[in-house]
Amino acid sequence: MQSNPWGNTQQRWTASGFPFTIFMMAATFLTAILSTIPAAAPLLSNFFFVGPTDLARPWKMLLYPLMGTPDIFALLFDLGMTYLFCSSLERSWGTKAFALFYVTISIISALSISVGGAVLGGPIFADNLFVVAGAAVVWGFLNAEQQMSLFFLPMRGIHFAGIAILYIFFVYARSAGWGAVPFAMVGPLAAFGWLKYGITYQIQSWGDGLIPMSRPTPRTNNRTNNRAGNRPRLKLVPDKNKPLDDRFTLSNLNPLRWWQRREERRKFEKLMGGDD
Fold it and tell me: Residue 4 domain-assigned?
């Protein structure tokens, strides 16, 4: 009996709960390898979007987020951020819903910088991390109070959303000028709107027969169901029962205020620990 390596790979990707994220990472890695081969340049030209000149090639609006860089450290960063944020959202929303998020943010970002290029009178490149930055914004607001560490720095989930916004800000302020920044910010803003207004679940409620996203088909090996089988409907809502001091506000983005709150929390924990 012959095995089917590709079929087994597909089954493992589906069972992971985030096959579209794996596809994004694999495509990014492959294009990074191809970018080192001069003969592949005609093929890779489809993975760059320059607004507004490439509006006549609409497929580029979906392919530019898959372009990898031959710089090993930048490539590892891209793959790591894609895995961290995109896989989490895909497991929560489902593959079809996340793929629709990818398409939406990719196209909106491309169109917005195209408008910016037309207004400013010059070409503007679409950054390949637009979708990942949008996913980071959504993930950051969903996990605003979750404690994490970035290298040695203790951070909250909301700080990752801020870092993603700052990344887009500095990339376009440096490469295309300050005038391009408002147009580049449309993508992260669209990602926040996607979360704020629960677009994923509105689409599901419009017609389950048209876009059946709610429940994936479970695995048939009788050992375990797909990890994405039962997903919570995540939506950004205010927590009215949360103490005011623990709610996220814009002042939390102030590093001095963040440090002050951190020191106050450490003193309190030390005080409570001394009472034991």
Answer: no
Rounded-to-integer distance, Cα 207 and Cα 212, Å: 8
Distance CA 20, CA 92 (A): 13
| pTM listed for this prediction | 0.73
Domain that holds residue 256: 252-276
Beta pairing partners, 147: 156
Query: What are phi and psi for residue 94, nearest 5 degrees?
Result: 105, 155
Alpha-carbon gap, residue 159 to 137, rounded angstroms: 9
Domain count, the chain: 2
Beta-ladder partners of 124 = 51
Alpha helices in 121-254 (DSSP H): 130-142, 157-175, 181-184, 186-196, 199-206
Least confident range from 82-96, 112-126, 149-163, 171-185: namely 149-163
